[in-house]
Write the structure tokens for this entry.
Amino acid sequence: MASAAFLRLPSSSFALPFKSNRPFSPQSLCVSKNLSFTVKASTSLDYSAPSKSASISKSNSSSWKWKFEGNSVNIHFERLEKDGADDRPRKNILMVPTISDVSTVEEWRLVAEEIVGKDGEINWSATIVDWPGLGYSDRPKLDYNAGVMERFLVDFVGAPDSPISNFVADNEYVVFGGGHAATIAVRAIKSGSMKPKAIAAVAPTWAGPLPIVFGRDSNMETRYGLLRGTLRAPAVGWMMYNVLVSNEKAIQSQYKSHVYADPENVTPSIVESRYELTKRKGARYVPAAFLTGLLDPVNSREEFVELFAGLEGRIPVLVMSTSGSPKRSKAEMEALRGAKGVSKFVEVPGALLPQEEYPKVVADELYKFLLENFESKA
């Protein structure tokens, strides 16, 4: 289910001349009452600087080159771990940000610090990675879709030079993902392309903003294609992107309305930092795919539930719902309550980005999940 941000044009609605047989051109873009796009988009928000845990002595930012279809894409990732000798068994947590126009590793930092700083039976480390085309990774003009994003995740985990290759070799890693990231990871695990010890899906989503509102019939798919092509175009694409996504008033409104549960948690520094992400070179390519449904890992609630059912008896699965999420997103999360394949279902405060708005609460639930499944088995 898509959710995080309502994107609106300044006028009452946005229309494209979808019935014309003529080739689409920027001049044909117009504002009218024919088709109103009220867009919901999953996004991340808060930019509170992480407070360093006294027990974490090593935190590194680095990059890894992803080789894809002749492209070499610099991928930003961060590692948090305890330094020095430690006789405890070691395991790694791969944390994957929610897919959105302002997606960033920053949303997981406080949770990572909280968990890595624990002194339990296992020495947990964390790796937080930005998606290609998002955050601080390179943003090349690729044909992004759910398959490409899944391929990236599988490559990041399985490549011989992967930053977590030592853990993957022994399958000593777990995955925490938010929004679409969680569902894409579940799809990769179901197919056998990834083999973590467990997965936690935090506020999981599955549908892009436009398809969830307007459906997926052939006429709408044509319209989505036109919109996507316009957003990717050299000149008019930036113009439309600036109106739909890249402006501070829209970002602030989105975050206060439903990405965070408490509007008071959305500070000017949060808005400014996320706005800066939307100004990076190539920033519009992944949002163009996400808004129009190309990054959707499934096409229906039934497929969403079935995807999780495919993990039944294979690994522990935690689904974390939120008490303040938008109605449609909440309905999709609730569809997983008691569902086959879901070994634990919990609800925490927050809306669409609880790991950033309420990191301590989320970290406590995630660590409890780890304790229940690994500490006594170390």
User: Anything to note?
Assistant: The CA atoms of residues 176 and 200 lie 5 Å apart. The longest strand covers residues 58-68. Residues 1-54 have pLDDT under 50 and may be disordered. The radius of gyration is 20 Å.
